[in-house]
Design brief:
The structure is a homodimer. Chain A is α/β, with parallel strands linked by helices. Chain A has a single domain, classed as TIM Barrel (Alpha-Beta Barrel). Chain A contains 15 helices and eight strands. Chain A has helices at residues 14-25, 43-51, 54-61, 72-75, 82-102, 125-134, 162-171, 189-207, 210-213, 232-241, 247-250, 264-273, 303-309, 314-328, 330-338, and strands at 3-9, 65-70, 107-112, 139-142, 175-177, 219-221, 255-258, 279-280. Chain A has an eight-stranded parallel β-sheet. In chain A, helix 6 (125-134) links the parallel strand 3 and strand 4 (139-142). In chain A, helix 2 packs across helix 5 (82-102) and helix 14 (314-328) crosses helix 15. The longest helix of chain A has 21 residues, at 82-102. The N and C termini of chain A lie close together (9 Å). The mean pLDDT of chain A is 98. Chains A and B meet through helix 8, helix 10 and helix 12 of A and helix 8, helix 10 and helix 12 of B. Chains A, B: Pfam families: Amidohydro_2. Chains A, B: This is 2-keto-4-carboxy-3-hexenedioate hydratase. Chains A, B: InterPro entries: ACMSD, Amidohydro-rel, Metal_Hydrolase.
Chain lengths: 341, 341
């Protein structure tokens, strides 16, 4: 079984964006705020938006199941306040839930949180609870920078974040550390902000002792861990200088990297440097990079091809494709067991 | 000949830091500002600070010459105003000039600029001119984020920066794009901010058309290019999506990566993915990572070992060690020719 742990609903029907635009336009004028019930998307539309896009490519590529969350760049937690994000997260999560209901064998949900700059993470818990208890979601995306490129929140190791970690540990749910779009002109969203956030989050964890307080908390760092595996020697050396244990002991019980690295040499490095039990299959398809690589003739984000060609044993490949994902996402594992997998 | 294009004066005598501390302490009280002449460091002290540190390691490792600039993390352009940075840059550059005078065969200078957030880059030109004309410096460090982790300046492709580019082109001097310390708690300086800045600068250039306006401008992106080579497929795909030419045509006449990547798999990836003519030897020794790698028994930053072990021909190694550096830093090449190299 091949599980993609990193998919977003990037192909939602245009009515979703139209609703969001109305919500944003009404920011200064609450009376004009659209109601959630004003968004009308039928099941046929949902089905079509998936069947001709993600599902089509999954079948072509041989991917069985995708952990599916709202479009990352649309989370835009910097817009409006908690109420804005709360209404928006509820809508986006519900759509992913409906997709998972329409395609129960191929999609399972992960939640977006109603984050907002400066807001207490405890306020995000009701939405998380709803997604886990009512929707059966198995993961969550945690934005380490709800300001959208201004980095005004404390590091992920700060007690500020502890309320959400407590709930994640209680539910035994991992968080993918995933920023949203950048409203800082210095940072291109998918070409800089995403990768920078991955590197930043890892280094925050390296500098701190978060997993001493939360030994069972699990964080998935997407996009192959940003710059981290490429600079693994630097991080090993920095850990030593900061008098931390070896990275394997300090971080690798709790931090995992996905395989959203869009060329063979990158995946070769990732799978060589990072212990195989810390690598989770993912493609973020349909996402940041949608073209065909002229050097290979295949889609950049067809990451399964790189895993197939990497110097791995069949057993290691199986770990990356399935075993590790089921271990890191135990609620996914439980759902699959209930279905006889 | 082996040339390290990325060395900083991280081992300056303590009097330098003491002077800086007095300067910073006097920020609210200009009358207390120390004069440059109050900093007294003798030639013997300078000689000792180099001979027992950088020079010792250069001899051990077989490095002939280092392009030597003021300590990057001490630039701290966010502190004070232009006058503050101006006095500080003048002092730091003069010290590097004196080091190069004491060890003319082993060190040649690169300048720190008196950057300050929001200040017109034209104001930095007199210091650059002094360093080039009086000191014979061959390069310059350009900080893309003088705010120190808040990223309040426009992207490097913005016309804001053009006055300094015009001067660099006139002098035929490359800029190493190098941030200083981070005063944003989210970003560890050497573990996140440095690498993020490298990735960010590359993506800014990718998104823009800077080299159409400055076809001979050359930027060196340090630390192996941040996350860029590891994600080369992503960047190739993003260039296509942004309707830019192939990266080789769009950026690689103007952008170069150094080899400050502190483990073998990273250097293997760098030298496999990036054309050899775009890779410049460097170690940033003595810098961010000072320990001995327990996995190899050698210093993390002894990057020559990785180049020696990489799958390169002797001719390619010579390009990385010398040829490329002399091509990208023509004033260095001219100085070496004058000395018969």
């Amino acid at each position: 079984m091949i599980i993609d742990c990193h998919g977003h609903y990037t192909t939602a029907p245009p009515a979703l964006e139209a609703w969001r635009n109305r919500q944003v336009a009404a920011l200064g004028n609450p009376a004009a705020t659209p109601k959630a019930s004003e968004l009308k998307i039928g099941d046929d539309e949902l089905r079509e938006s998936i069947a001709s896009n993600q599902l089509k490519k999954m079948k072509e590529r041989g991917i069985d199941l995708t952990i599916f969350s709202p479009r990352a760049s649309f989370m835009a937690h910097h817009i409006g306040d908690f109420e804005t994000s709360s209404a928006w997260a509820a809508i986006c999560n519900e759509l992913c839930h409906r997709v998972a209901g329409l395609f129960p064998d191929e999609f399972i949900g992960a939640a977006m949180l109603p984050q907002s700059p400066g807001v207490d993470p405890a306020t995000w818990i009701p939405e998380l609870e709803r997604c886990v208890k009512e929707y059966g979601f198995v993961g969550v995306n945690l934005n380490p920078d709800p300001s959208g490129g201004h980095w005004t929140s404390p590091p992920l190791t700060d007690r500020h974040w502890y309320p959400i970690y407590e709930k994640l540990v209680e539910y035994d749910i991992p968080a993918m550390v995933h920023v949203s779009t950048s409203c800082n002109a210095c940072f291109h969203a998918t070409g800089a902000h995403y990768l920078n956030a991955d590197t930043t989050a890892f280094m925050q964890c390296l500098s701190g002792d978060l997993f001493r307080d939360f030994p069972t908390l699990r964080l998935v760092i997407p996009h192959g861990g940003g710059a981290v595996p490429y600079h693994w020697g630097r991080f090993r050396g920095l850990a030593e200088m900061l008098k931390k244990p070896l990275l394997r002991d300090h971080l690798l019980h709790n931090i995992f990297f996905d395989t959203c690295v869009y060329h063979q040499p990158g995946i070769d490095l990732l799978t060589k440097v990072i212990p195989v039990e810390n690598v989770l299959f993912a493609s973020e398809m349909i996402g940041a990079v949608r073209g065909i690589d002229p050097e290979t003739g295949f889609a950049y984000d067809d990451t399964k091809r790189y895993i197939e060609a990497a110097a791995l044993t069949p057993q290691q490949r199986k770990q990356i494709y399935e075993g590790n994902v089921r271990r890191v996402y135990p609620r996914l594992d439980a759902a699959l067991r209930r279905r006889g997998h």
